[in-house]
Amino acid sequence: MYLKSLELQGFKSFPDKTKLTFEGGATVIVGPNGSGKSNISDAMRWVLGEVSSKSIRGTKMEDIIFGGADSRRPMGFAEVSVTFDNSDMFGRLDCPYDEVTVTRRYYRSGESEYFINRRACRLKDIYELFMNTGVGRDGYSIIGQGKIAEIVSKKSDERRSIFEDASGIAKYRHKKSETERKLAHTEENMTRINDVFLEVEAQVGPLEKEAQKAKRALELLEVKKQVDVQLWLYDTEKLRADVAKCEESFSHAEFDLQNAQDAISALEAQNDRLFEKSQSNKAQSEQLLDEIRTQTDANHALDSEYRVAQNNLDHTGELIAGAKGTCESTQKTILAEQDGERERLARIEEIESQLVSKEAEYIEVQKQKNDNNEAANKLSFDIDRALSDVHEINAELADVGARISFIENAKNTESDKNAAMLGEIAEYQAQSDKMNKDIGAIKNTVSDYDNATAEAKAEVDKLTGELATLYGERHEDNDQLSTLKLSRESVKQRIDTFKAMEEQLEGYSGSVRFVMKKYAEKAITDKHGVPCGKIYGPLSQLISVEDRYINAIETALGPNLQHIVVEDESVAKAAMFALKKAEAGRATFFPLTSMRGQSATPEMREASGYAGYIAVADELVESEGKFSDILSGLLGRTLVFDTIDNATVMAKALKFKVKAVTLDGQQINVGGSFTGGSVKHKGNILGRASEIKRLEEQSAELDARISKIEKELKALASEIETREDEKDSCEQKISLIKVMRDSELARLEQLSAKLEANQTLIQKLIDDCEAQKKAAEQFEEDREKLLSRKTELEVRVSEIGAARADMDVRRNAYLDAKDECDRTMTQIFISITEARKDIETEQRMIEEARIRMENYGALIANQNGYIAELEAKIASIRELMQDNRARFEAGVAALAELNQKRAKVEEGSAEFERRLNEINSKIRERMQQKETVVKEHTRLENRLFNLRAEQDKLASRLWDEHELTRAAAIELGYPELDATTRSEAAAKQTECRNKLRAIGSVDLDAVNKYKELKTRYDYMAGQISDLSAARDDLLNIIGQLEGEMETAFVDSFNQINENFNRVFGELFGGGSAELSLTDPDNVLESGIEIKAAPPGKIIKNMVQLSGGEQSFIAIALFFAILQVNPTPFCILDEIEAALDEVNVARFAEYIKRYSSETQFVMITHRRGTMEAANRLYGVTMPERGISKVLELNIDDISKKKGEDWDGIFG
Q1: pTM of the full predicted structure?
Q2: d(Cα 1137, Cα 1168) in Å, to the nearest integer?
Q3: Cβ neighbour number for residue 683 with a 10 Å cutoff
Q4: pLDDT digits (tens, 9 = 90+) for 1144-1181
Q5: CA–CA separation, 805 vs 556, rounded Å?
């Protein structure tokens, strides 16, 4: 197993996703102080399960989440993933995969997530995965900054964890802890079960007695049931005989009553004949009366027409006023639209003003950018000029130095001097040739860097434009998403409202709600407290109807929609009993066992051939098959037609023998009555389900559209992130290339200056050789002048160097300001794009408002035409009213004449009235005789009624007490009673009641409760026995684990002690070191002492050692542990910081020795440690608070023995 990669996002100073890859050997991470190097070590410790915030240099766990910077907002989570190659058998993790990725994620809310290969797991799983590998939160593979010396300075008992991990007993200790936890849990269970067991044991005896008592009561109840049934059957038969006898007497009374009725009928016939004669006289009176009524009706009709005309006149006036009101409101709407247009125009003007301001700001920032660029270029020119001055001065210095040397060597003979000069000239010429070759190569490299920079800048500009477009698209999608979410929330609120109405049965009667509520609470029972059978609910909730048929079906069913469907008659009786008991009102029930369907009549079959016929109503309703009889009984004789006109034609043709209902809810009843009017929409009971379905479909459609836009936004976010990453990558590449280019330019300037100085020196040496002979006498004087000139030149070089450094700082400030202008220009460009889109939106809304105003204008014109028509109608109505008044007055005169004629006819009716009075007197006498007979008839009828009522009461008593019907009672086969045995049975019934009363209140379910409690008692006794055995097994396991741990620890400790002495001598060049146990008799709890004496020193206490020596001793102990139990990798954070260069070199040599078996990831500032690296990472902080990682392969960096690392460290 070896470490393959580490990926961070949002962890401390790494907000962006940062990935470090590792290979075999040593990887070194370098960077300035505060750049975030140690955060990489903290990330590795954290992802492997560290739970202490102090161990990762924090005060609370939330500190690991990136807290924001000047240009970055704080992040909401931190995530670290580490990947291991698990294909090698050495150090292989206990995992079936060849590659293992462990991920840990932490949110600001305090929630944590753990994953192994992207599968969720527990922190415990990660801890156990790395146990005994040396890797993990408590392992010795990760040594944090400043922690190496703590190995020596810790107390003896605090050093145990490292040695336990190295000896492999950490896993045993973990198993022991788990076993002890299980033991404590087992003992806790035993205590709890014993408490419950004692309580159950105390209940067994009393419940056994109660069960015996219940058994006796059940036997008495069975005896009483037999006597009750026998008495009921006997009393029922006797009552039937009494009813038959009474029915016979009642029939005789009915015969006498019929005779009296016949005599009365004869007198009434005589009365009728006389009455007919009287009526013929009255016919003429009636005819006149009819004429009077006709005339009266005509007058009334004329008066009604007049009132109708007056109402029409008033209504037409109201219509005119309404039309004028519509015109006024429309005009106000037009004015409001005009105001809105002005507001939008003002908004456009405001946005355009902002746009102009933004464009001006963009131009101003662009000007600032150009000014900064120009200032930076000017400073670059001044720096180059200063560098040129330095080169000239250096050349002169070289010349002066050469001349001084020449003068000092002038004491030799002229021949020796000429030979030395010629050799020196040849040497300088060879150096010039080599420098010319190097300068050519460097210029080619700089040219390549310039080309790469230009390409990267072009890519950055391209990505900036693409990002502006993507930001605009995201803004549009966010606006559309907000609108859709508002619509979805509105729809969901309506759905919730309708569902709440359904759940709360709003619109149903209080009795229906009561029944359904009590049924849900299982509170509807029979009189014995047994829960009733199935209540399916109101009929409206059990059926479904297509939208177009809802009005028709709801009209046809009417109140039946609220009636409750139940399983059978007993459920209906139990529900009615509950309503009666609670005085909660009345309800109607549809038992499935008693409802019967209706078949089609011949008239219905004939009606199906008429126009507009749709179907029989029950065919348009969907429900479960068991409800079909109910629907057939309610709707099987109702036809559905499309319109009231078609339904009326059919009903008239069939003489109104068929009930019909139309799609808009109008109804024609059997017999010819019509029911109709307006129908509520969206609030009716059946319409709710349809409305909920429609709203849910609308919500689903909105969800789909929202999901689509969210996916688009996610894709845009991903694309924006990709473009941002690409842009950042290009900018980082530009920065890196700039650093490398500046390094090459510096080398080029140095070589150019050396070359120029060499060429000047060569020429000077040649001139000096020629002039040597002439200027020999002035050598001493020239030497003094040259020394003075050399001092002046050196001071000048120092001054120019300081000025050049200051100008370089200023130039960098201008370049930073130029980069800031670039970022500001990008943000302004995005704002300008959004403002232009806002202007387009406002202009589009103005166009739409203008179209609406045109429509409003047309509406006003239409209303004005309508008003003209209504005014013409008023004139016509007034003419009709004048004609009506004239005809009404003529009708009043005719009515007065008819009344005079009728008065004369009425005078001849008095004689007929006298004779009729005589006959009526005789009829009254007969009626008195009939009354006597009726009394006897009524007495017998009442007795018959009472006997039948008693019969019904007796029948219900058997059902109420034992829930038995007559047939069921006979099937029991009890012996029949007679007149002599009935008294014995009644006595036996009384005896049973007395015995039951003596027993008192009894829990009839006590027998079953005792059986259950006894079973539980026996089960718990077995559990206690099992737990005792489990406790003994756990104690044995703990003893075995302690023995294995002691053996493994002693073996490993002895090996580490031996290795520690050897490694100490190798690192310190001698001396001695030893490990010892503070309590050898208690190996598993003993502390560990460290004794070490460097060469030539006698150390009584480790505190006497210097910080560097303590660190080096700890490093020696670390390598001794690695020899015993090598870990796959080690992360060392500046553990050699206290060492001197010699000991750093020894440390680096040890790292190279062990890097073939163990990966090393070292965070360091020391050059000696860097030289041991196979791969190098640089951590920088280009922006305050944000760390970046640059990767550089060591093989790509030129390094020569004894020289600095080119372009990196020198």
Answers
A1: 0.37
A2: 11
A3: 12
A4: 888 888 888 888 778 889 999 888 888 888 888 889 88
A5: 100
